[in-house]
Amino acid sequence: MSRPLYRGVSGVRTPEHNHDSWESHNKDKVDKEDFDKKGSSNHSSLPLKSHLKLLFSDNSHSKYGTNENGYSPDPLIGTARSRHKLVLHLLKCSLVFIVILALAGSFLWTLSISTTSRGQIYHGYRRLQEKLVSDLLDIGELSSAPSKMKELEFCSQELENYIPCYNVSDNLGLGNSDGEELDRQCGPELRQNCLILSPTNYKIPLRWPTGRDVIWVANVKITAQEVLSSGSLTKRMMMLDEEQISFRSASLMFDGVEDYSHQIAEMIGLRNESNFIQAGVRTILDIGCGYGSFGAHLFHSQLLTMCVADYEPSGSQVQLTLERGLPAMIASFTSKQLPYPSLSFDMLHCARCGIDWDQKDGLLLIEADRLLKPGGYFVWTSPLTNARNKDNQERWKVVHDYTENLCWEMLSQQDETVVWKKTSKRNCYSSRKNGSPPPLCGRGYDRPTWPSRDNLNKEELAIHGLQTDEITEDNESWKTAVHNYWSLLSPLIFSDHPKRPGDEDPSPPYNMLRNILDMNAHFGGFNSALLHAGKSVWVMNVIPISGPNHLPLIHDRGYVGVLHDWCEAFPTYPRTYDLVHADGLLSLETAQQRRCTMLDIFIEIDRILRPEGWVIIRDTIPLIESARALTVRLKWDARVVEIESDSHQRLLICQKPFFKRQAN
User: Parallel, antiparallel, or unpaired for β 304-309 and 646-655?
Assistant: First the structure.
């Protein structure tokens, strides 16, 4: 393309400038001739000459005369234009060189960056990510407020006791049987984006300890017919009227559980069940627990009994036990490894629990051994232990011989009850016959007694990779937090609900809550602080699979808990917890590329929370604001509270309203 030209008349000179232009023209012509001569005499300059031609090329048809369009070129602009192009070319080369240097420097800096710097950068990235999430939610709410903030609908009546991940018909269709059809299968099922209503006649549970022995019939799935068709022991333990089920564990007429517990204590070598603590027993896994009466009786002795039972489409042991304010969860002992770490419990109890311990080549006994702490006790009550026919005697012999290979010592056998003690000495395993199953694994240690277990010593903490000052600081922090929580909740609860059924006067704050779920339990400090404050509660400590696994530490401290993926439903029935607590859970989950949303997690919280139950969420300000926006869709009452000791975090305190289905 031709360079820009001045407008002029073809062949006409301008009088004011014709002399200068002519001299300039002659000078350029002489310079050009000298340049050509030098170039022809020196062939080594050809490459340079070629580059110069490229840089200073002129595409016009005439050098200095008029062209075919009648425009006369400027004799001075060619040189200036050429220099300008050269400068631009050099600038481009310089820019490319600078970019290469910058990339190389960045790469070297990345390789040499320290671990601390990486943590700071990651923390900064997390903060930016949280802010981005908050901003996106705000933008979405502003752009589509009517649809985004619409309240969720209530679920249909058949979902009143709905538990996701348990579909018996689908499991049967896959060929599962022998109890496996009741297994938990959390696949990509369609989520129920609705709120589960309470049954028509649902009533708020009675306060503890009254609620331990009396529950409302309408609050559970079990029917009067199912109670009357249960075994004689169950009927002796329960009385049923139109509205209530009464458990007679505190009655002088009822001696079954008390005598049974006393018998077990004597078989161990103790005076009575109140001495279990002295024998190192604090946590008990009650397999197939019935309606939780064994754990209810032992609770006053500071023993913590976790009930586990299979999923039941109707008449649930787990639902009824939780309704009584006792620890329980759905779990199948026969098909899958339980979600507890190894060496978790001081005692395993199975009273006619329906498990055939002689089956599956000893795998069920191996799982029991895995869960049992060294020096712990295995209590089994079954007609098989006192069998008279040959087949059952053979089955009993299989169990007896296998427990010897596990290095369990049979302490005593009375009637149908047998008590074994798991050895705490490693030399027993080395003295076994070669090839005796099962192979050796695990670690051994002496068990401290409760409550000293709550404060593990330096050597015990070192097993978990922690130091004493870390736990001490965590404990003090949670003591302050629990004090603040109760200061906030007490006036709210008593102002809204000064009395409940069965209360003559407003109860003191210690028992205003009973079943507590900690969705991100960390070291178990929240649980510890509640007990130190004298609160009559039990805590299900949950360790999310997306975070550090401190569950072994929690069990070693004498508490109970499980691993769980919060993108899946928790294995419990609706309306089973009075308080759900989540410290840092939202930050933990949003940092992962999860397959669920914050709303999915909140819908699950609503499912397992009792009417008039409470939610306490502690997290960063952007995430708390995002969570607060979601509470509108859930119909929760919510308020945000500042934290004096932390300007970067907030508390979100919510209460679930009491909605129930209207009678037809």
Answer: unpaired
**Residue pLDDT, tens place only, 117-167:** 444 544 454 454 544 444 444 444 434 443 456 899 999 988 898 888 887
Q: Which long-range contacts (CB under 8 A, 24 or more apart) does 561-568 make?
A: 561/518, 561/521, 561/524, 562/329, 562/339, 562/340, 563/339, 564/339, 565/186, 566/519, 566/596, 566/601, 566/604, 567/594, 567/595, 567/596, 567/600, 567/601, 568/164, 568/165, 568/186
Q: Is the omega angle on the peptide bond into residue 448 within 30 degrees of 0, that is, cis?
A: no
The structure's pTM equals 0.73
Q: In whole angstroms, give the CA distance from residue 11 to residue 66.
A: 7
Identify which of 497, 558, 499 has the alpha carbon closest to the alpha carbon of residue 524.
Answer: 558
Say how far apart CA 239 and CA 214 lie, in whole Å: 9
Handedness of CA 173, 178, 181, 183 (dihedral sign): negative
DSSP 161: T
Contact yes or no for 336/359 (Cβ under 8 A): no
Cα Dmax for the chain: 138
Q: Which of 497, 525, 491 is nearest to 509 (CA)?
A: 491
Distances (CA, A) of 117 to 63, 126, 311: 64, 14, 49
Report how far apart, in Å, the C-alpha atoms of 487 and of each of 201, 493, 584 are. Answer: 32, 11, 21
377, 347 Cβ separation under 8 angstroms? yes
Cβ pair 569, 163 in contact under 8 A: yes
Instruction: Kindly give the interhelix angle for 598-608 and 621-634, rounded to the nearest 10 degrees.
Output: 60
pLDDT tier at 584, thresholds 50, 70, 90:
very high
In this structure, are strands 408-414 and 372-381 parallel, antiparallel, or unpaired?
unpaired
115-143 and 621-634 helices cross at what angle (nearest 10)?
30
In terms of DSSP bridges, do strands 538-544 and 560-564 run parallel, antiparallel, or are they unpaired?
Answer: parallel
Reading the block at residue 549, the tokens are 């696994």
Residue 29 has pLDDT above 60, yes or no: no
Alpha-carbon span 316 to 576, nearest angstrom: 13
Sign, Cα dihedral of 467, 469, 470, 474:
positive
d(CA 338, CA 560): 13
Q: In this structure, how many other beta carbons lie within 10 angstroms of the beta carbon of residue 162?
A: 16
Short-list 343, 367, 345, 344, CA closest to 355? 367
pLDDT band, residue 238 (cuts 50/70/90) = low
Residue 398 CB burial class (10 angstroms; 0-12, 13-18, ≥19): middle
